[in-house]
Design brief:
The protein has 465 residues and is α/β, with parallel strands linked by helices. Helix content is 37%, strand content 20%.
Length: 465
């Protein structure tokens, strides 16, 4: 595993020279998990002059960038021009590097070597115009590998500068299938209508443990739940004190922490700004702005409502999710034992957990997968609606129970009628052990099928007559 030391590469201006010192060392104490984003990253480096890995701090962006296979080569114009693995590394968490880039961005970029990793680029936004100029002079693929811990492209001058020149790889915290080392197949099987599987382990005890543990590598390396909780709380504090300062002027950081706690109690519920702001002395527009900031640093996410002309009386409000259940549980003080005892809270966090896992798997897919939720004014709902381009629609309902009834498919049947020929399939994920077919492309499957890839045997598919 790569351990990132707290002394990043020193980058200093000396005339026109940049001096750099390697600071990464290998350790054997921490497990190195497979990252399925590696394949799309290599593909992007093969044909894009700049590639951005963006996602929350400490999710593994720098490790992924620096652990590229040294034998990976990029061919351009019939000859090999880059061998990744030996790229120079500069982080803008280093104050000297950041000052140099901000004071003379053109000179800074001109002095960069042929291939370079620029870490935490959101902290030096002035360099993006200079990167554009360098790319336009020479569009060699894979020259700039960038990482960012906030939504960099929401900065207007950034998105304008690198339009058509930058490919984006979203890196999430570790998915459960990365932790188990099994290649994900769930989304492909969902859209193909093939969710057969042999009997799998259920047990909400294990689900609760997974939910509370979250997906951040440094937290998972800690040996107890309490130590992981402390890591998450320190992580949130650091995020709100450091990264928020880079993107907005916030006078009351305490309000941001309280707001995150309020939002974490409402994960997997409809986003209601009025309810969230009722406990604060700040205005609703201010609270709304704070929610947007929490989204920009990957702590919260809102998913829009699915729309269809065939359906009337639809609720248009988005649904709110924490971006990692480990963070959410930490800020509200929910242990795995608390989740096991509070079934309503367990249900909320299980839905967010499933959403996170599917979003992480979708980020590696060759298909364009977009996530929505569905709810009408009669309170008929589908937790997740996934569109595959314009061609197919699938639905996922999450049930924090070991039993499923026909009534649990009400929302999925309504989605099927609305989607028509585009409907590929629907599934109720539950805390059980077996797959059951309910006919018409509707299936019950264990939550664990998201990360387990069992050998399928037709004899284990149970039919509900």
């Amino acid at each position: 595993m790569v351990e990132e030391l707290n002394v990043p590469l020193s980058t200093m201006r000396s005339g026109t020279e940049l001096t750099r010192k390697p600071v990464t060392k290998m350790t054997s104490e921490t497990k190195l998990y497979p990252r399925y984003a590696e394949h799309p990253l290599k593909e992007a480096l093969a044909d894009s002059p700049a590639v951005l890995i963006h996602g929350p701090r400490q999710c593994g962006k720098t490790t992924l960038a620096r652990m590229m296979n040294p034998s990976q080569t990029i061919v351009w114009g019939g000859e090999t021009v880059i061998e990744w693995g030996g790229a120079n590394y500069i982080t803008f968490d280093d104050e000297t590097a950041r000052e140099a880039a901000e004071r003379d961005p053109i000179g800074f970029v001109n002095d960069l070597p042929g291939r370079v990793i620029l870490d935490e680029v959101q902290r030096a936004p002035s360099i993006f115009t200079a990167l554009k100029m360098a790319i336009d002079r020479d569009r060699i693929p894979g020259r700039f590998l960038l990482t960012g811990s906030s939504q960099v492209l929401l900065v207007p001058r950034v998105s304008d500068s690198l339009a058509g020149r930058l490919e984006i790889i979203r890196l999430h915290p570790l998915a459960q299938c990365e932790l188990s080392g099994q290649h994900p197949t769930f989304l492909d099987r969902l859209f193909s209508g093939d969710l057969k599987a042999p009997e799998l382990a259920g047990a909400s005890d294990r689900l609760a443990d997974r939910i509370v543990a979250g997906g951040f590598p440094a937290a998972l390396a800690r040996s107890t739940e309490g130590r992981r909780r402390n890591w998450y709380l320190n992580y949130v504090e650091t995020q709100l004190q450091r990264d928020v300062r880079d993107i907005a002027k916030i006078s009351d950081h305490g309000a941001m922490i309280r707001l995150l706690s309020v939002a974490a109690t409402q994960t997997a519920r409809l986003y209601n700004l009025q309810d969230m702001s009722s406990t604060f002395s700040l205005s609703r527009p201010t609270i709304g702005k704070y929610v947007e900031i929490l989204e920009r640093i990957f702590l919260l996410e809102r998913i829009p409502a699915w729309q269809n002309n065939r359906l009337k009386r639809m609720v248009k409000a988005p649904k709110l999710h924490v971006c990692d259940t480990g963070i959410g549980c930490a800020v509200i003080g929910a242990s795995s034992e608390a989740l096991k005892k509070d079934r309503d809270l367990f249900g909320q966090y299980l839905e967010s957990f499933v959403f996170q896992e599917l979003k992480r798997q979708a980020s590696w897919s060759d298909d364009t997968l977009t996530f929505y939720h569905y709810r009408d004014k009669d309170k008929v709902e589908v937790d997740l609606v996934i569109e595959k381009g314009t061609m197919a629609v699938a639905g996922v309902e999450v049930k924090a129970s070991s039993t499923v009834r026909a009534s649990d498919f009400h929302g999925l049947r309504k989605l099927k009628d609305a989607a028509g020929d585009r409907f590929a399939g629907g599934v109720v994920l539950y805390d059980g052990e077996k797959c059951w077919s309910f006919g018409e492309g509707l299936t019950v499957a264990p939550v664990s099928l998201l990360w387990e890839n069992p050998v399928e045997t037709a004899s284990n598919l149970h039919l509900d007559g």
